[in-house]
Design goal:
Largest sheet of chain B: 3 strands, antiparallel
Largest sheet of chain A: 5 strands, mixed
Oligomer: heterodimer
Shape of chain B: globular
Largest interface: A-B, 18 and 24 residues
Helix content of chain A: 10-25%
Distance between the termini of chain A: 31 Å
Strand content of chain B: 5-15%
Strand order of the largest sheet of chain A: 2-1-5-3-4
Strand content of chain A: 15-25%
């Protein structure tokens, strides 16, 4: 199972085992990561599961779709070039070792 | 309800018109309106939390945000009420809805035309999407109408649900008072707990098996959102209203490709009004019988007499 490291706003890391085919958001919610809100439950509507992908990984993810791109403009925290919605990051074997950082707020 | 691919096109327009980025531009104005209303209500003390709060707040911000003119707005709530009664079953509520619909439908339909909408509202933005080719010019007024059908009564009943919870459950009210940052979560939990939209239909487009039951093509399937939101297999102490509960995954706004497209607007309205209440009101005391309002789809109150005391 791919492991994804989530660095929380206070700098503390936590490793999440994310089942293949599940989204990073689903795993984060299931394993009680507080900095992911996911108000819309994974329907790509709310931009409250925002993460910053580690720069060394940015090019290794499929690029954001049009909807995700538009939603990120409305994220509560600053949008950066590495911003993604974790509901749109689906775990695959080649994402094993991915590192993401949480923004300071989601709403 | 439309199916893909036509649905995706019209839905994308509404998603953009009601996007998180647009919500940011509305927040301050909505906050100010919420504070104004709560201060007015505190001055009156004895109020009906349904008409004076749950209805009054969305009515003070939503029609404006759509870009509707002032006169005639009294048609909005009856129009929405009858739309949600029209889902059936074929009972007296549904029969009366159809009998009394004409003047409300006529007014609402007229307001959806471009020339009747202010240039800076959601309505105008929908018409602009037709100019840009995202939808047709015939579709634009229908999309504006869908916003007026689904965007007001739902929020009214959700805010009513939240206030009713906070008035009934002193621990929850104390918790929100102690941490007003819980306002948004308290609203969300009220949507789970009361499920203001109780039921919604889907129609099968082909033979399908769901939970071991075989359904033919064209079957009407009624989802009980309220039941799912209190399912003990999913929720700890489902019958307890807990503003600090992790509510993610509740289906009060539906789920999937038809999930409520206005959910962010509803949440924004709910959050700012509960924030204003938490900051300025000391207590909400129920002073008379809570009277139910019966509707075939919506769960809510007709009347909730309360006394508000300043913090």
């Amino acid at each position: 199972m791919p492991t994804i490291t989530v660095i929380r706003p206070d700098g503390s890391p936590r490793d999440l085992a994310v089942p293949e085919g599940a989204s990073l958001m689903q795993a984060a919610i299931g394993q009680g990561i507080e900095g992911i809100v996911a108000e819309c439950g994974g329907n790509a509507m709310c931009a409250t599961c925002h993460v910053y992908v580690d720069e060394t990984w940015a090019d290794r993810l499929p690029p954001p779709g049009e909807d995700e791109d538009a939603l990120l403009d409305g994220a509560a925290a600053e949008r950066r070039p590495t911003s993604r919605l974790s509901c749109q990051i689906t775990a695959t074997p080649d994402l094993d070792g991915l590192v993401v950082t949480l923004p300071d707020r989601q709403v | 309800m439309a199916d893909p691919p036509a649905h995706g096109r019209t839905r994308a327009v509404l998603s953009r018109v009601l996007s998180p980025a647009v919500m940011k531009t509305l927040r301050q104005r909505f906050q100010a309106a919420a504070v104004r209303l709560v201060d007015d209500l505190l001055a009156r003390r004895e109020i009906d939390a349904v008409a004076d709060l749950a209805e009054a707040f969305p009515l003070s911000v939503f029609p404006e945000a759509v870009g509707l003119r002032q006169d005639g707005r009294e048609h909005l709530l009856p129009y929405a009420g009858l739309a949600f009664n029209a889902f059936g079953p074929p009972n007296e509520l549904r029969r009366r809805a159809f009998e009394t619909a004409a003047p409300h439908v006529a007014w609402v339909t007229e307001q959806c035309r471009r020339e009747n909408l202010a240039p800076d509202g959601f309505g105008a933005a929908i018409h602009a999407a037709a100019d840009a080719g995202a939808i047709t010019h015939d579709e634009a007024p229908l999309l504006v109408r869908s916003l007026l059908t689904a965007g007001l009564d739902t929020t009214v009943n959700s805010i009513g649900a939240a206030v009713y919870c906070l008035a009934r459950f002193p621990e929850a009210w104390a918790r929100l008072k102690a941490d007003p940052g819980l306002a948004r979560a308290a609203f969300e939990e009220a949507v789970r707990f009361e499920s203001p939209v109780q039921t919604f239909f889907r129609t099968t487009t082909r033979p399908v098996e769901i939970g071991g039951a075989h359904l033919d093509e064209g079957s009407k399937v009624l989802m009980f959102l309220g039941a799912a939101n209190r399912d003990p297999r999913r929720w700890d102490a489902p019958d307890r209203y807990d503003p600090a509960r992790a509510t993610v995954g509740h289906v009060g706004f539906g789920s999937g490709i038809h999930m409520c497209v206005g959910q962010l607007l509803g949440r924004l309205e709910g959050e700012v009004i509960l924030s204003a209440l938490a900051a300025r009101v000391g207590s909400i005391a129920i002073t008379g019988p809570a009277v139910r309002r019966y509707n075939n789809t919506l769960r809510g109150l007709e009347r909730l007499p309360v006394t508000l005391t300043a913090a």
